[in-house]
UniProtKB/TrEMBL annotation:
Gene Ontology CC terms, in alphabetical order: extracellular space
Lineage: Eukaryota, Metazoa, Chordata, Craniata, Vertebrata
Membrane spanning residue stretches: 185-205
Keywords, sorted A to Z: Glycoprotein, Membrane, Transmembrane, Transmembrane helix
Segments forming domain MHC class I-like antigen recognition-like: 56-169
SUPFAM superfamilies reported for this sequence: MHC antigen-recognition domain (SSF54452)
GO annotation terms (biological process): negative regulation of coagulation
The protein's name: EPCR protein
Length: 211
């Protein structure tokens, strides 16, 4: 359906990860103003809308595959040290909105097994615990994610600048990013994976109360 003139333009990404007995399954997608733009299935991500040239996109696909493979191998390693016989489901929901008056809003939310787990406060690049009550895994994950620039300042830049520039290009009718803002769109998926790495470390290391 066509959007209302007063409705914001949106770029939304959803990344799902299911971990069970050391095996990781990935899936997700991204949408640009309601149109499917990217699809993640297993270790492969597909660009549905031609937002990046083929040679650039080929490198992005390789990057995503590398990060997801690294995540899978890390989970397998953790599972050997501390086997878990129950399923963990992690969901990253991130993106930005551009309003008609030129203002924007960016967000990054993480759920664990269907419950709000963490969120990223974009203005000051900090992770916040959302799990109700005290939760050692959430506390550990926040501590880990705050250690690295790629999961703080780089993530802030992606959400505040790159993501919004995608929508600005859309609003001007060009549909393409300028050369100045060609930070890979798939960086959001990569950052989501890195965030999951921090949480995976927490989930496995904190099992048994030995963070």
């Amino acid at each position: 359906c066509p959007a209302s003139p007063a409705a914001p333009l949106t770029f939304i990404m959803v990344q799902q990860t299911r971990v069970f007995k050391g095996n990781s399954i990935f899936w997700g997608n991204a949408s640009l103003d309601g149109r499917l733009s990217h699809v993640l299935e297993g270790l492969n991500v597909t660009q549905v809308l031609p937002l990046e040239p083929p040679d650039t996109w080929a490198q992005r696909q390789k990057d995503v595959n590398t990060y997801l493979t690294y995540f899978s191998n890390l989970v397998k390693l953790f599972n050997k040290e501390r086997p878990m016989d129950y399923t963990q489901r992690l969901c990253c929901h991130l993106g930005c909105r551009l309003y008609p008056n030129g203002t924007s809003h960016s967000f990054y939310e993480v759920a664990l097994n269907g419950t709000a787990f963490l969120s990223f406060h974009v203005p000051n690049a900090t992770w916040e615990r959302r799990w109700p009550g005290q939760h050692q895994v959430a506390t550990f994950a926040v501590k880990e994610l705050m250690k690295y620039s790629i999961t703080t300042q780089d993530l802030q830049y992606f959400l505040n600048t790159t993501c919004v520039s995608i929508l600005q290009a859309q609003s001007t009718g060009t549909g393409k990013l300028s050369s100045r803002s060609r930070t890979p769109l798939v960086l959001g998926l990569i950052l989501g994976t890195l965030s999951l790495l921090g949480m995976a470390m927490g989930i496995f290391l904190c099992t048994g109360g030995s963070c």
